[in-house]
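Sequence only, no structure available. Ideas?
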Amino acid sequence: MIHYIKGELVALEEDKAIVDVGGVGYGIFMSVQSMSMLPPVGDEVRIYTYLNVKEDAMQLFGFLTRDDLQVFKLLIGVNGIGPKGGQAILSVLSPDDLRFAVLAGDAKAIAAAPGIGKKTAEKIILELRDKLRIEDALEHTVSSGDVSAGGRHAGSEIQSEAVQALVALGYGSTEALKAVKKVEISENADVEDVLKQALKHMMF
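Reply:
I predicted one. Tokens follow.
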């Protein structure tokens, strides 16, 4: 198993990055979102990989974070979703956006991916609803600094409640998640504070 590839980014093609490792060029298929976040050609990169073995080919699929890779593995675990389909979904939705789309039952957002129909999107929601948590989408946005793990967990709980409150007010689930993620959580913040700040972000 190849866990990651680390080397010089030497070229970008339509759907893959070429990374030179010790004189060997690895072609790594990547989503549009991931490719847009790569450093300039010539810089060193670390790309986490999934090796897909077929009868007639071996393909490497690449991701910028372990979280991206983990979500991809969950996607291709859904019957009918292959590596290309999983990558197509992650080209239109970040892992965080996918988490909330699944938890909010937003099949339309998932079906926006090329080759993914409404029935397939609904199947993804059904199979992944118990495997994805909104806290995972929110936790890394909580200000760390000297805050304890317990404090970070409390912050993500506050953000989760704020997202649910915005959805209850009639805002779209993905829109609500993005607005709450922009709010910096202070040590003494409560749900009302986060909600007020999120509403300001949604107005501009």
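The first strand starts at residue 4 and ends at 12.
Hope that gets you unstuck.
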